[in-house]
Design brief:
- By secondary structure, the chain is an alpha+beta fold.
- It folds into two domains: 38 residues; 113 residues, Macroglobulin (MG2) domain (Immunoglobulin-like).
- It is built from one helix and twelve strands.
- The strands form three sheets. Strands 1, 4, 5, 8 and 12 form a five-stranded mixed sheet that branches. Strands 6, 7, 9, 10 and 11 form a five-stranded antiparallel sheet that branches.
- The radius of gyration is 31 Å and the shape is elongated.
Length: 168
């Protein structure tokens, strides 16, 4: 009775299944490729943020005869530093971190900046309980033009060990 079954042979059914999987895979790849290309094109368009970066920032401690012009006044616990802005961007402010053996002194804004091309002496205060000075970081902060938005340029920070800082 059931000897007259009609159907697809196993070979043909396997072949059909493979072709369907390939067709679905190609369709998914085509859709994802176009979606990815559109997203990359949108990201490549220039925005205002492209101009707001730290590329033009270049600050450093002045060196005279190979010695950094920075000293640590242990009586007042301040650092006196001659800072040079060699970049093309004005520095709006500085972030100052002094690391001691007892405490870390972190000042997010020292309250003064430095115009492009200028050199200036700055006085950074440390708390009295910092202990022996080990390390300092002075990080420039820039402002977006015609805005209050600030950008901290961590990749342009000045880093010195205590061995590079003489006593005043």
């Amino acid at each position: 009775m059931l000897n007259h079954k009609k159907g697809v042979s196993p070979l043909v059914s396997t072949l059909l299944l493979v072709l369907i999987v390939i067709a679905v895979g190609a369709t998914v790849m085509f859709v994802l490729k176009n979606l990815t290309l559109n997203t990359l094109e949108e990201e490549a368009e220039p925005t205002d943020d492209a101009e707001f970066n730290c590329d033009d920032v270049d600050v450093g401690i002045l060196k005279i005869s190979g010695k950094h012009q920075i000293c640590h006044n242990t009586e007042t616990n301040t650092l006196d530093a001659a800072i040079s802005n060699r970049g093309n961007s004005d520095i709006a402010d500085f972030k100052f971190i002094a690391i001691g053996n007892a405490k870390i002194n972190n000042i997010n804004s020292v309250g003064y900046g430095l115009k492009a091309g200028d050199n200036e002496y700055f006085y950074f205060s440390c708390s009295q309980d910092i202990g022996e000075l080990i390390h300092i970081k002075i990080t420039p902060i820039i402002n977006r033009e015609n805005s209050e938005e600030k950008l901290i340029c961590f990749n342009k920070e000045i880093t010195l060990l205590a061995d590079d800082i003489k006593e005043c």
